[in-house]
Amino acid sequence: MADAKNILLIRTDRIGELLLTTPAMRAMRGAFPKAKIAVIVNPFSADVVEGSPYVGSIIKFDVEGIKRNFIKRFIFFKAIKQSGFDLVVIFNPNKFFNILTFLAGIPVRVGYDRKWGFLLSHKMKDRKYLCEKHEVEYDLDLVGLIGVDTDNKLPYFPLSDKAEEVTKGIFEDNSLAADDLLVAVHPAASNPDKMWPLDRFAQVSDKLIDEFGAKIIFIGGREEANITEAVKSKMKNNVLDLTGALSIKELGSILKRCKLLISNDSGPVHIAAAVGTPTIVLFGEDRPGGSSKRWGPYGKGHRIISKPKVADITAEEAYGVVKEKVLELCRRT
Question: Which one of 7, 12, 38, 138 is least enclosed by Cβ atoms within 10 Å?
Answer without folding.
Answer: 38
